[in-house]
Design brief:
3 helices
């Protein structure tokens, strides 16, 4: 999935994103959380990144990767922290970080790129762990509680 977006297309983009995330195998609460995190990043791009941006969603092995690029002037700081309870807004990056397997922010000449990831189980393939043969790809491993 690769799409440009504006404020007028955010809702339709979220619906297409939900369908694509489900089709990629990320369903249930994990799928909902991932879509919510991406939605927060998309709305941040609209509000703070020039009013429009580009979303790219892809699956690489068992990792779902979504990049959101905006075209605004990059701020001096990109805080990934929880705002005070008496402050309206300011929680989008924190939510994206909390709801996904990882959040990366990169500031460039033409704006900011936010990348979030989520682990998707490969049907019929056991997850690979650290110490696997070096020529085999590493897979997402869920935390186990014993």
């Amino acid at each position: 999935m690769s799409e440009e977006f504006t404020a007028a297309t955010v809702t339709a983009l979220r619906h297409r994103l939900q369908a694509a995330v489900s089709a990629a195998g990320l369903v249930g609460d994990e799928g909902y959380d991932f879509v919510l995190a991406v939605h927060e990043l998309v709305t941040n791009a609209v509000r703070h990144g020039g009013g429009h941006g580009h979303l790219q969603l892809r699956r690489q092995d068992d990792v779902l990767i979504c990049q959101i690029r905006d075209h605004g002037a990059a701020a001096a700081g990109l805080p990934v922290r929880l705002s005070a309870v008496d402050v309206a807004g300011g929680r989008g990056l924190w939510l994206a970080h909390q709801l996904t397997a990882g959040l990366t922010l990169a500031r460039g000449l033409h704006g900011v790129t936010a990348t979030v990831t989520a682990c998707v189980s490969l049907v019929g393939s056991p997850p690979m762990v650290e110490g696997a043969k070096h020529d085999e790809p590493k897979r997402c491993v869920e935390d186990s509680q014993e």
